[in-house]
Amino acid sequence: MEELSLLEQLKTYSDSDYYPLHMPGHKRRFAGMGDPYAIDITEIDGFDNLHHAEGILRAAQRRAARLYGAEETHYLINGSTCGILAAVSAAARRGDTVLMARNCHKAVYHALLLNGLHAQYLYPNVDLERGINGSISPEEVRQALWHQQKERQKETDASDRTRDGLERTVHRDAGASGRICAVILTSPTYDGVVSDVRQIAQEAHRAGAVLIVDEAHGAHFPMHGYFPGTALLCGADIVIHSLHKTMPALTQTALLHVQGSRVDRDRLRRYLGIYQTSSPSYVLMAGMDRCIEVMEQQGEELFGAFVQRLERMRRKLCRMDALHLVTGEEPELCAFGYDRSKVVISTENCALNGLELAQILRRVYHLEPEMAAPEYVTAIMTVCDTQEGFDRLTQALLQIDEGLTGRKRAGSPADKKPAGFYKNEEVMTIEEARDRVSQTVGLPESAGSISAEFVYLYPPGIPLLVPGERITQGLVEQLTAYRDMGFSLQGLADHAGERICVVCEADT
Q: Which of 135, 149, 152 is nearest to 191 (CA)?
């Protein structure tokens, strides 16, 4: 049988009754752009140049800044990833240290690799029953910054007197206690958990650090008071939004906002030119401008109706008995705020795990969720979802729940709940580990070795293991459990997840 081309496959899927509970936020129904080939041009006269914007593109970016309340906004045609890379590169110098949430997207780790940076981690609270990461505590940020300042002061004060009476200051390697130049957070998380950005911004600025917030999943926050407040209004210096995740915009489109004087804006612009394509798509940029235009003109009406549909659905789903709708009020999450457009369904006390629930939604109800985790499923609802979409998801979950009532899942090794992030020992930086001689070993035999590659589940693309970290037996068991449950371990050269690349002992 002849295989279909990608275009044919996409058209066939689009014509089916499968409903998207995932990004992009336009949900395959936001119209108004016509034939993409008819508007696909290059930097011809009258259409400006994104990297030297002085005309129509400059005006478009200013419209986006006005909508979001930012001092300056940049179009990102390579997604939030290029914005994160540019933000970290602009804020840091080689050898600096960043204070970052461990549940940051892999792009932040790649920025560390490219810039030769050191990481000090902030670990989110974890809801162990549901396996969901919570928020970052402002107090933890304060303590980390205070401790770093104290250690640097010790270094400055440490001195030896030579025989001739001259004072000699002792300096250590910058990597051991180099200045924390930036604090980096993901808020909201993939599951909608928000941190207290306002308080964290105050702590970061008090210590002389820049605050970078990956708010990729919160591009809709400023559109309605039902949602948490955006980091832009809470003191963050750089905020990155993925328009395509929760707004009516095409995949790969995002925004970077910059506020205040703590960030070198010329340096930021230079790095945006490095990490973005030199041939930005006018189709994508037109889609972004169209999104901004619609939000300016109809945003209040569209989001008002969206919030009503969302709240009606959430009230119905709160009646489920076996399945559980995460509300953001669970004390274990310790969340400062919660994005209720993320419909997170926990399977903690029923006969299914998250992957099995996602498969039922897909195969039986033709509903495609955004993500399946060991203990929950995440659906993303946006302003472009139809009432039919809300009804189909509600009815499907209520029917599944009715069939599960009274049935509990028998325990098994594969059902072992994740215990959050392992606090792996950092033996060397990501850059150092990548430059060392490496070898491939079986995953069971890797305990005690130093990883030479990333390991993460995608989505959401948060590393469970980073190059330069020592592999523990507990982590090996966790990764094996994920693999046995049917999840794909990505980042490994071995796509089967059975072998891992480690630093050769002779090169440590």
A: 135
